[in-house]
Amino acid sequence: MTDKTMTPDEVVGQLRSGMTLGIGGWGARRKPMALVRALLRSEITDLTVVSYGGPDVGVLAAAGRIRRLVAPFVTLDSIPLEPHFRAARESGAFALTEYDEAMFMWGLHAAANRLPFLPVRAGLGSDVMRINPELRTVTSPYADGEELVAVPALRMDAALVHLNRADRLGNAQYLGPDPYFDDLFCEAADAAYVSCEQLVETAELSKAGPPQSLLVSRHSVTGVVETPNGAHFTSCAPDYGRDEAFQKLYAATPWPEFSARFLSGGGEHAYQSAVRAWHEEQR
Amino acid sequence: MSASETAGTAGTSGTAGTAGTGTDVSRADVSRAEYCVLACAEAWRGNGEVLASPMGLIPSFGARLAKRTFSPDLLMTDGEALLVGLDGETEGWLPYRRHLTMVTGGRRHVMMGASQIDRFGNQNISCIGDWARPSRQLLGVRGAPVNTLNNPVSYWIPRHSTRVFVERVDMVSGVGYDRAAAAGVTRFHRLPRVVSDLGVFDFAGPDHSMRLASLHPGVTVEQVREATGFALAVPGEVPYTREPTAEELRLIREVIDPKGLRDREVRG
């Protein structure tokens, strides 16, 4: 069977400027940050990013790589407002398709199921309808006759997600309490790239957790990357929690300075070394 | 909502309009933050077996107080993906995808924050200024649109001011009564109450407009009017928020918030 293992830079080699890119996780939770950092090292830009947004959106916004963002929020969770997202919005740096959280989820379901849309009781009465004038409604064909929003499929060219374990074939496992929507992101994208804390033999997956922890199956995966600490500084339960001290630093440091210290040293290994050095300085 | 929820019970001596100087010991002793915890707790009275989703510190204390006293059947989360009892014991699984089904299934009563709220309960947490290029980007609409059309939504405002209680919100995230009616989405729409550091409000005013339901002891109607950027419905006699029982005070002070974090969110 196909060995799908790749490096972060090989993943980025499959991406192109102008693509629609889905990013899994939620807020500052289990974001595929190592893959996002690889993206920052490339020249790829002009992206439409689809995300329950966290620092993935923040760093891409700070680096000027986003043409349009599709999101219901962008937050660092323990720090409610993402500073680079805010700055980008306040300077009009990119276009925004602002959806409600449930609309966004049903857009993923529609895309994963190859449906043009799914009906949702959300959005009507709110300004989500005003700022997204392309949104249409459908009327229930049954006796209730309810008018619902027809959320269009959130189809993507590529998706990036980060899970706890994966095998070389692309079967991937989450060991924390929440799958977020990573399976849907993979199924909603033409190509999906899974980074993981640890690459293991297939037989090891069933030893690490119950069958329902096998969230992502290989038929929906294009490439697999082992990136230890690859969600840093977001959380990746139970392997590690959010690096709150580092997240504070990220939020408080001007982007050029942060980028120069942590993101200009070459690859992911250099980033992780720079983070370790910073933590040692704090002791 | 029963009258006793807002009208107060034993220990409430009269109304703000007539008796602003009650000086019984318990009143002098109860902090503003404690009245706020109690007023938040009352939002979940009689809700039965639904998920209490408090956003923010004082609503969280309120939800726990409700569950420990008059609403023991409430469900609560650990803030991540587990349903937990008061002792932290896991009783269920609630990842975001199931949480959203709890919303649309209606088995949830959320108390959200609001950066802006208007007299019909339209709420904004998305951005300040013109949405196309906001002067201040906030969180985004999050789940406010789906929440307000599907499950009861109350609000908690820790600092009541004309910056929050506005004539018109900049970006309608949570849907108020007027917009719900205009859009024909009233089927499951309900905003039980707004709690601020000054009082409790409901939407029993004309055309479902915001009405002053009770004042926290020590607050006057004039203070509330001055801090509100729209014409608030004010009944002739405004009750005080009820006094906590001795047991409720003990729970707040010794069990739910022994570190006194509540007094940092609301002073006085």
From TrEMBL, chain A:
GO terms for molecular function: CoA-transferase activity. Keywords: Transferase. SUPFAM superfamilies: NagB/RpiA/CoA transferase-like. InterPro entries: CoA_trans_fam_I, NagB/RpiA_transferase-like. It comes from the Bacteria. The keyword Ribonucleoprotein does not apply. It holds the Pfam family CoA_trans. This is CoA-transferase. It comes from Streptomyces roseus.
